[in-house]
Design a protein that fits this description.
81 residues, mainly alpha, elongated
């Protein structure tokens, strides 16, 4: 029984960096859409107002893809707690 608990403890401690980075990517993307799009709509000039959210969305999605690719690179690196 102790051995089983010890093994479970090791597995929980040795999560890969990939999972940690993917969670950070998700929260970063969520914050970007939750807070920045309303601010862009509020403070931009009327002529740029239509294009700014679209441009920001494209940049956010490209950044998210890069973040996920970086997480995949760290698939076999273990997280240091």
């Amino acid at each position: 029984m102790r051995f089983l608990l010890f093994i479970l403890f090791l597995f929980s401690c040795m999560l890969s960096k990939e999972e940690q980075m993917l969670e950070e990517c998700k929260s970063q993307r969520k914050r970007a859409y939750t807070y920045m799009i309303p601010l862009i709509n509020l403070y931009n000039k009327p002529t740029v107002k239509e294009d700014a959210p679209l441009s920001y969305t494209i940049v956010t999605e490209v950044t998210n893809k890069r973040c996920e690719a970086e997480a995949k690179k760290n698939q076999y690196n273990l997280r240091s707690n």
